[in-house]
Amino acid sequence: YWKHVYKALLLLDYLIKNGAEGCVREARVKIIEIKTLTEFQHIDTKDKDVGLSVRERAKAIVELLHDERRLNEERSKARANRGKFSQSI
Description:
Order of helices and strands: HHHHH
Radius of gyration: 15 Å
C-alpha cells in the first residue's frame, strides 16, 4: 500500500502550503514520523524501486518544515494562486 503513503504525503504537502497555520504546527509535531519515510523501501514485483517517490516527497516536506523563509514564500505563493484556480458559479 505504498500508494496510500505517497498520497498522504501529497495531501500533507498541500495542507502545509495551503492550509491553516495549525497544519504546519501539527506537521512539525510529527516531523520524526515524516523523517522515517525518507528511508522508505518498497520493491514491486518487477524489481522496480517504487519507494523512491515516497522518499523524495518526505525529504522535500522535512526540508520545507525546517526552512521558515521558504515555507513563508510557498504559503504566500499559494495564497496568491488561490484566486487563479477558484471558479465562481
